[in-house]
Model the fold of this input.
Amino acid sequence: MEEIISRLKRLAPLIPVTAMMLLVPGRAAEPDPKAVHYTLPDKINWRKSEASDTATIQGDPSKPGIYIQLIKWHPGHMSRPHFHSTERYITVLSGTWWIGTGNKYDPASTYPVPAGTYVVDVAGGVHYDGAKDTECVLEIVGMGPMTTTQAEAK
Done:
């Protein structure tokens, strides 16, 4: 019994190191591109503008088929009243998105929708939207071809 206790005492300093080696994952293998495609954030191609940045990450809104876009609204910028030819399905990923309806542009009447909110832009529904005091990022999914028509009352 003394010999077992003596061996355990000699091995005791190695137990934490052994445990760490077992608990720390090895280098993860990249997914097989035949099974999974991905784009890391620093590789997303953003088209920048004063009001918002846009990244089309799947498809093309002007062509038939599904498209997915990311929109990054800069603080203090909003669109003017407009409508889309097809429905668009939107998830607010971060920040607060402000939405208004109707052809009279009135940012003070917009309604705040926080991150996590799901919104449907109904085809032909006149609306305007954007960011007020903080940046807001949206994911928009739709079927092309999609057109946007300005609809502000003059």
In short: The first strand starts at residue 52 and ends at 58.
